[in-house]
Amino acid sequence: MMMKTEKMAVTLALVLPGLLAFAGTNAPVAVTNVPVAAPVATAAVAAVSAPAPDPRVGKVLMALATHLQSSRRFRCDVSFLITSGMEGMKQEISATYALAAEKPNLLALRHLRGMAGNSVICNGKQLFTYSPVLNRYEENEAPRSFEQLSQGVGPMSGNMLFVDNLLRDDVYASIMEGVTKVSYLGKETLEGQECEHLKFIQDQFDWDLWVSTGLKPVVIQVFSDMTKGLSSLSGEGIPDKGMKMTVLNRFSNWQIEGVLPAGTFEFKPPPGARKADVLFEGEEGEAFELPPAAVTAAPPVAVTTNAVSTPSNPPAPEDLK
């Protein structure tokens, strides 16, 4: 099973090439798999882990876990904004996806706009991963469950969208994996939606989670500060130069249960798309490196949900606390 620190390395691999080029270093950072998400849905309701020491944290996470684990299907839109920089440079990468899932193994993660990332479709029998940058796709046997899909290094590794944590058999345990400290920061309102704000501390990165209040809680926002992980690379021949990186995830347009449109989990190769045995490998077997131009994108456009509107310019982290 891929640990959170390993998944973070995939996120770093997307950003480091541009930063290192600016810093004038030749340190190699090959990207052999550039996914942008993780599964969506869990197996049947699993036993929820014991709550965190703070009963308010346990109450929020257990309610979220129970709601998601008891749902057969759901859909939502999810976006990410990666902001990275060092002395004299700032870089932003953003994208928005439409996500739908139905147990035990139907999945559709479709790229809508922003950075050209992968789309991942599982129709229950075959698992397709499509790269618009390469205009080619990979086909594999479908996993029997979302839990199985989240294991190892595959199209769902990276967890850049945080979704992987929400689709496991034990949502609570997945969220708490690697966490050394967690705090309850109270209730806040994000664009009209009342949320409960939790802060998590881990060895390699710190992150904040906003969960909607009410009987059917869902994730509204996740903010991750990866700076500690970048600092640890300074001892591996990569210059520090004040490197910083944050990841902002926003979820909107949640639909729990309900009927999904026909064709939701159908994959149709785009015109000219080529089927490949290994998606991210060059013609001669060399590792595929993400070109610097591919990590430039416009800020996220507005996404409206029944209770939350995601603005084009997300507030700064200090404005969210």
Plain-language structure description:
With 321 residues, the chain is of the alpha+beta class. It has one domain: outer membrane lipoprotein receptor (LolB), chain A. The chain has six helices and 14 strands. It has helices spanning 4-23, 55-69, 146-149, 163-166, 171-176, 227-231, and strands at residues 73-86, 89-102, 106-114, 119-123, 126-131, 136-141, 179-190, 193-202, 206-212, 219-225, 244-256, 274-275, 303-304, 309-310. The strands form two sheets. Strands 7-8-9-10-11-1-2-3-4-5-6-12 form a twelve-stranded mixed sheet. A two-stranded antiparallel sheet has the order 13-14. A hairpin with a 2-residue loop joins strand 4 and strand 5. The protein starts with a helix and ends in an 11-residue tail after the last strand. Mean pLDDT is 75; it is low at 13-46 and 283-321.
